[in-house]
Amino acid sequence: MLLVVDVGNTNTVLGVFDGPRLVDSFRIETRKGRTADEHALLVRQLLALAGMGTGDIQGVAVGSVVPSLLFALERMCARTFGLAPLVVGPGTRTGMPILTENPREVGADRIVNSVAAYERVRGPCVVVDFGTATTLDCVSEKGEYLGGVIAPGYQISAEALFSRTSKLPRVELARPPRVIGRNTVHSMQSGLFFGYVDLVDGLCKRVLDEMRVRPAPRVLATGGLAALIASASRSIHEVVEDLTLEGLRIIWDRNATGATSGSPDQEAGGGTGGPSHPFRPRPRNPAGRSHTAGSTRRAQPTSMRSRGCSTVHEAESRGEDPDSQPVALAARVPELGRGVCGRARGPSPRHRFPPGAPRRADRPGSTQ
Fold first, then answer.
1. Residue 240's CB: how many other CB atoms inside 10 A?
2. Cα separations (Å) of 60 from 282, 328, 339?
C-alpha cells in the first residue's frame, strides 16, 4: 500500500492507497513544532484506526507547502516504515510541463492538483483549491501548467473581519438563509459567503476568457470548503475532495515506474536541476535486524534534497569555493534557493585581512 501525505498550512491530510483505490483518509491539524516522534505516533494510531499496520505500507509520497516540517516527516518515515519518502519538489517527474516564469516557485500542491485534474479530465481544466489561500490553477488542452491565481482564503477573510473590528463577532462559516441579513450574524455570513462565491465565479470567468479554449475548460474544486462554496457557485462543475491525494499517487507511480519521459520542464517546480532523482532502496529495520538479500521490497525514490552539497569540506575537496555553494541548509530546504549559504555582505571572513596584515590586537595603539 502507498501512504500519501498532503501538508497544508492549516491541515495535513493523509491517505492510504491500495493500487488506484483510496482505502481511507485522515485529516489532522498542521503544527510546525510537531516532532518526528509525534508524527510517528499519530500515523501509527491512524493506521490502527483503519485496521492497518505499518507493515502494510510499501511507499510514502509527501507534498508539502510547509518546508519546516519536511525533516520531521522524513525522520518519521525512516523510523516508522524504514522508507525514504518521495517528496514532491524540484526534480520530481510529474509529466506536466510548467510554463510559468519561474517554475521552481510554484507550490507543490498546485502542481499535484493540476496533474490529478488533467488525468481525470483529459482536457483543458481549471482547479480551484479552497485552502488557507484559495488558488486557481490552469491546465491547457496539451496538459501544460499555464499558471493561476492566488487569493485570500475564505477562513482568512472571516478572521480578518472579526479581528480588525471592535464589535463584530466571530461567526460560523455557513450559508445564510438569505442575502439580506436581518441580524448581525446573518449579515456577516451573507457578505462572507456570497461575496466569496462571486469572487470565485468572477475569477473563473476571467480565467476562462483568457484561456480562449473551446470547448470551455472544466472547473474542478477541492479543499475543505469546496462543497460549501460550490453549492452556490455557477462556475464549478465538479467537487473532488481527494484530488490532491490522487495527484500524489499519480506522481508516485510515474517516479516509481519511470514511465514518464519528458523534458526537464516536466518536473515539479520546473526541475531545471537535472534528471529525475534516482532510486535508493531503504530496508525496513524496525528492530535493528539486517536487511536480507532475498527481500522483494520495492525500491524507494530518494528525496531530491539528498543530492545537495552537505558540507563545506565536501565542496573544498572538489576544488570549489564553499562560499558559492548551497551547503547543509540549502540542501535541506530547497525553497530557500541557491546562495543562502553563500556570502553575505562584504568579503568572506577567511579573506577579510590580506596576507601579513596585522590583526586588531597586533596593530599599534590597540588594546586587548
1. 18
2. 12, 24, 30
So which residues are the catalytic ones?
109
Q: Determine how β-strand 59-64 pairs with β-strand 21-29.
A: unpaired
This model's pTM is above 0.85: no
Question: Is-contact 36 76, C-beta < 8 A?
Answer: yes
Q: Which residues contact 320 (CB under 8 A, 6 or more apart)?
A: none
Going from the first residue of the chain to its last (368 residues), give the mean pLDDT of each consecutive group of 10, the final group possibly shorter: 94 94 94 93 94 93 93 94 92 92 92 96 95 95 95 93 92 94 95 96 96 91 94 95 95 75 47 32 40 39 40 46 43 44 43 51 51
Instruction: List residues bridging with 48 in a β-sheet.
Output: none
> Cell triple for residue 224?
475543505
How many helices (H) and strands (E) are present in the chain, helices listed first? Answer: 9, 10
Domain 106-242 carries which CATH code? 3.30.420.40
Q: Please, which residues have CB within 8 angstroms of residue 314's CB and are 6 or more apart in sequence?
A: none
Query: Where exactly does CATH 3.30.420.40 map onto the chain?
Result: 106-242
Helix (H/G/I), strand (E/B), else coil: 344 = coil
Closest C-alpha to 302, from 7, 56, 54, 77: 77
